[in-house]
Specification:
Elements: E1 21-24, E2 27-31, E3 44-48, E4 53-56, H1 63-73, E5 78-83, H2 94-101, E6 105-107, E7 129-130, E8 136-139, E9 142-148, E10 157-161, E11 164-168, H3 186-197, E12 203-206, H4 215-239, H5 244-251, H6 260-276, E13 281-283, E14 286-288
Parallel strand pairs: 4-5, 5-6, 6-7, 11-12
Antiparallel strand pairs: 1-2, 2-3, 3-4, 8-9, 9-10, 10-11, 13-14
């Protein structure tokens, strides 16, 4: 999510956590019980397939939630538990669910940031198979492809299956994503959006929010929004150099206090990328253009 968007605090749950919602004959999802200003209604867990399943992003460790996933599987073979990235609302349930279902964990690489591990990361994630960018495997007669989309996190993967893209937190259906340095990188995030513009999938299934039925339009909007924010921060740093806190307050006037730290992280991600491009400089704690 992007702090400052009006949707950022709208996390009223209109779907029932633990209830299975069909999205087609070969796709269903259920909601984890973790609504918040940063997850919307919560994390969607996707069950991909009919006779044999893949379980995508099992979410947090919560006994009732894991029970609901097992009930939704309904005894069908699970070929793998897939993980898009290792934020705590996505990956911690993978290991206990794997033990209950007898399935391996496949997906993104583990992630550690020496000396500066963001509190939101899952340090215990240990996949049985790390999927590389472009790696494919067959699932119910169709290839499923891992698509590396760094930016939100450096290890983020999307998964393409036919006309569908399971977009994790890279492209969401309720708000834009937050990018938190040092692992999150705004330049990588924007490059990953451009990468998806060259792909053929026509519907996105994000981990938060509703399916996206016109993804190319949304991708254009996300890129435009990021470029606008980038130009704004460069202009503000030129008009009146200031600290990250001061620039963020000017860029996000009237921001809800609960979202200030996340807004500062997103602003920092933009400023770091602008610094790498030589468009702003940093002297001590002051940014100027």
């Amino acid at each position: 999510m992007l702090p400052g968007d009006s949707s950022a605090l709208c996390h009223v749950v209109t779907h029932e956590p633990g209830r299975l919602y069909a999205l087609g004959p070969d796709l269903a999802r259920l909601l984890a019980p973790n609504p918040s200003p940063f997850t919307g209604e919560g994390t969607w867990v996707h069950l991909i397939g009919t006779d044999r399943l893949l379980v995508l992003d099992p979410g947090p460790v919560d006994d009732a939630h894991l029970d609901a996933i097992v009930a939704a599987v309904a005894g069908r073979p699970v070929d793998a538990i897939l993980v898009t990235h290792t934020h705590r609302d996505h990956s911690p349930g993978a290991a206990p669910l794997a033990a209950r279902l007898g399935a391996p964990v496949w997906g993104c690489a583990p992630l550690a940031i020496p000396g500066n591990q963001e509190a939101g990361f899952d340090p215990d994630y240990a996949p049985d198979r790390i999927l590389a960018d472009g790696e494919t495997f067959a699932h119910e007669g169709r290839p499923l492809e891992a698509v590396h989309t760094p930016g939100h996190t450096s290890n983020h993967l999307c998964f393409a299956w036919g006309e569908r893209l399971f977009s994790g937190d890279h492209v969401m259906g309720w708000s834009t994503t937050v990018v938190i340095p040092p692992d999150g990188h705004m330049g990588d995030y924007m490059a990953s959006l451009q990468k998806l513009q060259g792909r053929p999938e026509t519907i996105y299934h994000p981990a938060h929010g509703e399916p996206v039925e016109d993804p190319q339009r949304l991708l254009r909007g996300l890129l435009g929004h990021r470029l606008q924010r980038e130009r704004q921060l460069q202009r503000l740093a030129a008009e009146q150099p200031g600290t990250l806190e001061a620039l963020t307050a000017r860029a996000y006037p009237g921001l809800d206090a609960r979202l200030v730290r996340a807004a500062q992280a997103t602003a920092l991600a933009h400023l770091v990328t602008l610094e790498e491009q030589g468009r702003v400089t940093r002297v001590g704690a002051t940014w100027k253009a």
